[in-house]
Design a protein that fits this description.
The protein has 185 residues and is an alpha/beta fold. It has a single domain, classed as Rossmann fold. It has eight helices and four strands, in the order ββαααβααααβα. Helix 5 crosses helix 6. The longest helix has 25 residues. The two termini are 27 Å apart.
């Protein structure tokens, strides 16, 4: 997941925060319907504007933009796996299955719809179709989320000029602030 957290007119500096799924999953619990709009909600919360409004105003020529990239990476990996499992449990407790049942009733959505092929939806759709048990769907969703987090970490490692930090460290905010101060002069 990539979230732009700040931008300014040319010469612009755009701060991009890249976070693994489990980092974002630690946002305060919300109704399951909000899951699809978490990036928009984060942008609204930080900027007090809708994501689409902000994006339309932020279109700048690429040569006038300097990107500062900050990667949030939870370590050790076992802690990340625990958080992924806890978030899946929270989603299920907060009505994820009921949300999916409602989505399945919409005629424009099918199992092969892009939104229904995402992690969690795909596995529990199979459960609702009686093609696997609840425990099997849960295990598959957990495994798929861990795979997604691993791919995100691989992507973060391949990024050039990225400042990575464990967001669970007590000094994370101070370290990010110092990095931004240094980069922005």
């Amino acid at each position: 997941m990539v979230v732009v957290v700040a931008a300014a007119p040319p010469p612009a500096v755009v701060v991009v925060v890249a976070a693994a799924a489990a980092v974002v999953s630690e946002l305060p619990s919300s109704p399951p319907q909000a899951a699809a709009t978490s990036a928009s909600a984060m942008t609204i919360g930080m900027n007090r504007r809708r994501l689409t409004d902000w994006q339309s105003d932020a279109r700048l020529p690429v040569d006038h933009v300097r990107y500062l990239k900050i990667g949030l990476q939870i370590e050790p990996r076992e802690l990340l796996h625990q958080r992924i499992a806890r978030r899946l449990d929270q989603m299920l407790e907060n009505g994820f299955i009921e949300e999916l049942r409602g989505l399945r009733e919409r005629p424009e959505l099918a199992e092969q719809s892009p939104s229904m092929r995402s992690v969690g939806y795909r596995q529990f759709w199979q459960y609702l179709e009686n093609r696997c048990t609840f425990d099997e769907a849960s295990d598959k969703a957990l495994f798929a989320t861990r795979q997604l987090a691993k791919r995100q970490f691989t992507w973060l490692r391949s990024e050039k000029a990225i400042f990575t930090i464990n967001p669970l460290e007590p000094s994370a905010i101070d370290a990010i602030s110092a990095y931004l101060k240094q980069q922005l002069g």
